[in-house]
UniProtKB/TrEMBL annotation:
Pfam families: Asp_Glu_race
Similarity comment: family membership: Belongs to the aspartate/glutamate racemases family.
MF GO annotations: amino-acid racemase activity
Species in which this protein is naturally found: Exophiala xenobiotica
Protein name listed in UniProt: Aspartate racemase
Alphabetical UniProt keywords: Isomerase
Record keyword Metal-binding present: no
Amino acid sequence: MTKTVGLIGGFSWQTMAIYYQEINEYVNSKLGGIHSANLLIRSIDYSDLASMVSAKDLGGMTAMLCACGQQLKAANAQALSTGLPVLHICDFTARQIVDKGHRRVGLLATRAVMEEDFYKDRLRGFGLEVYVPDEDFRSDADRMIFCEMSKEQISQGVKTTWHTAYQDLVQDHNVDCIILGCTELRLVFGQEDLTAPTFETTTIHARGIADWALAESTVFT
């Protein structure tokens, strides 16, 4: 069996569903049959996201992850409160970026993730330089994500705005690669839009967690 991981969410139930699906599909691709991951899910309403998760909420966990980038502000406190390691999205993403030889990264995400240091400092800890779009874009990012993208009601204008921010980071800041640091960005970027090496954090995180859960696990066939 795989090690048990706690999923803590989140901005939306859709994000939790994506994590659940991607982790289980990856585990099944490795183990075959009808195998799946051992997961315990703690879904939190977004308005209550600042609340701490206690150890009693996560009985049986060996580690936990936060499925909402903004909740990572409390990740260290949650680790201390629960005694469990947090499988941090930045760590999995940064390792892949470093392994590919990149150093200058452009970050697209929610306003808090782009502006505050809790996310960027974690990336900088791997020796990365982090660049974000201008203030006009950052001030409108949450409206686009919360009011349109999270509801999968995305206007062409919103898509164009994100695509322009992407290209500005590549051209004006000469970044080596782009981080798509919000699950909903999968809805506005197709493969044909990615003109630089691009790291989509949800998939990276989910597969990294699955690999961690599979390591030294015992599987009964």
